[in-house]
Amino acid sequence: MRSHHRAFRCLAAGGLLAGLLAACSSAVQVTGSPDAPSTAGLTGIHKIQHVIIVMQENRSFDSYFGTYPGADGIPMRHGAPAVCVPGPAGRCIRPYHNPADVSGGGPHGLKDAIGDINRGKMNGFLVQRAKAARTCKFAQDPQCAAGSSRDVMGYHTAAEIPNYWAYAKNFVLTDHMYEPVKSWSLPDHLYMVSAWSAKCASASPMSCVNNIGGPDKGKLVGQAVAQELSTGTTSIDMAWTDITWLLHAHHVSWRYYVQQGSQPDCANSSALTCSPVQQRASTPGIWNPLPLFEDVQQDHQLGNIRGLGAYFAAARAGTLPAVSWITPSQLDSEHPPASIHQGQAYVTAVINAAMKSPDWNSTAIFLSWDDWGGFYDHVVPPHIDHNGYGLRVPGIIISPYAKKGFVDHQTLSSDAFLKFIEDDFLGGARLNPQTDGRPDPRPDVRENAPRLRQPDQGLQLRPAAAQAVPAAHQPGDRLIVGPAVLHRRTGLRGVHGAAARLRVPGGRSPQTPARRAGRRVTAPPQAATLARASRIRRAYSAASSSLA
Prior knowledge:
A hairpin with a 6-residue loop joins strand 25 and strand 26 (496-500). Strands 4, 11, 14, 17, 18, 19, 20, 21 and 22 form a nine-stranded mixed sheet that branches. The chain has a three-stranded mixed sheet with strand order 3-1-23. 22% of the residues lie in helices and 17% in strands. By secondary structure, the protein is an alpha/beta fold.
């Protein structure tokens, strides 16, 4: 077996339930697990034997990485944003640093994407946000607070999302990653697994027609969820072919991991808030569409849709499947009004589990956000077909093969993840009606789009050995809601991590290492915002954020 020596450092994951928030202050040398599968003899893309797609919610590239060095970020002049977006009253607002842990965002349906892009002017964000304000449903929604509508122009830095910036610094940041369709979460997730969004009249694939908003813009999915919860049956057919059809035919293992809790988006894509809808592995939904696909049922693959706890168990055991998708609940999704600290902590825990796994030496993690969430971005999306692309979203590629600090400027979308999977595991087979053995009337083969690139430019796959990179590590893999967030140093120089004072059921909250050492720890300036976030989360949460 070929061992990889790499620096192993901590990225503190706020909200990790293990009773511990140990900090690694110095690097130690470690090697791959003795029982890790060898990649010796494998070449190029095939050195990657485990692809993990981690999909979060509702952030534009500029809102997270608009000031990241070397990236195609917010246009600046003399250190200040050079762009100004007009509001409905005519007054323009420039992008500004928003330190808040919770923000409202804006509507993010098809008409909102068209309005935000505004024929390539990229200046409709405040106007669309003002139109959506009338759909507010409860007073604690930050969208309803006076003056909060401007937060669609806000951006975050390493001060608020230190781990994401640390991942970008130590792995690969993609600055031209677009949502695959100029729409919202449901069609984005349909594209993520099938490269299409359609509506079908029956269980026949040929009965499907193009539908950019998803089946009845999500209303049928909401009905299917309600029917599943009450009767155990569903009332909708997603009959076109998805990637699991090809994976099953080629005997390639896959899992779709779902965190139990509430659903991260509303069935009405232009609404800013909605009542929480239950989400779990056995329940179809906006973020868990695979149970509704006819081919998944026909192939008897429903058992491959698992709770998130199964992912952590597989990572520990070194039994990760070839392809994994991981989807959060609302509280950990970063979908407004969710806490970005909490979402970052959840993602860190997911990534840490992969890095600690015996499978790490042959793993690539594709971390992205499904849509722009109404937040400002300055780049005009390229036209691929009638459906997309949509607006730009953040993307990070994390792997022992990643080129440290590389910024990938290629045109990418979640279609590129499918293309990578197809080229790595399926011999280049595509979701193509002419060749996949299950024809449907999709308008094009998205993976073959001329402008779409392969997301491997940031992976150093040619040398025999993987590049040594710092890995993030944190003991424990159980998450719990922890509303008190404190700042503390991580092992990565100049980067602050989000550490939580944990609330353990049936016991006292463990103290942070700084408190145990007798040092005074003060809350960050946004403490009032965090308290507000906690109130909002309680309004959402009859649902649990516990892992299942």
